[in-house]
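Notes from hallway chat w/ T.B., transcribed later so I don't forget. T.B. wanted the structure written out for a chain they're using in a teaching module, and asked if we could keep both sequence and structure tokens in one place. Agreed to drop them here.
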Amino acid sequence: MAVRVLVIGECLVDEVAGPAGRTVHRGGSAANVAVALARLGGDVTLHTHVGDDAAGRELVAGLETEGVHVTASSVRPGPTSRAVATIRPDGSASYAFDLRWDPVPVDVTGFDVVHVCSFAAVLEPGAAVVRSAAQSASALSYDVNVREVLTGTGPRIRAKVEDLVARCALVKA
């Protein structure tokens, strides 16, 4: 029997613009983790926030093709989040984000492990959903990957991260 994993976090469109042109990919730490776990044979469900636009439908279809179940409540009215990386001629990058992170609460009952990811674990209003799920999880893992440009820094963010870390069986930092 496969391990039942609930992954909670961001799924977005990653655009990379550089000297050779623009490429578009499925992105987000949570989406990447969910796909990797599904490829390893896990029974994986992703709870996220994607828009009901063409990009959101494409992201969900691609995840389902990879064997990831996406909760129906993950699809919300509005546009899908985007991250744009611009690669400069010297190879350095700059990043711009257009994010929506307001997932509905999710029931973690029946999952062996809950994995939470990245900025989604500390960026409000969705971080409250992550904290609630973390408090109810029988086993919790966390990929910290905080993005200063999105979350800021300081004691408030540190306290959120430390609270999640204290609950975890596994932390990637």
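Follow-up for T.B.: The longest strand covers residues 12-18. Might be a good example for the class.
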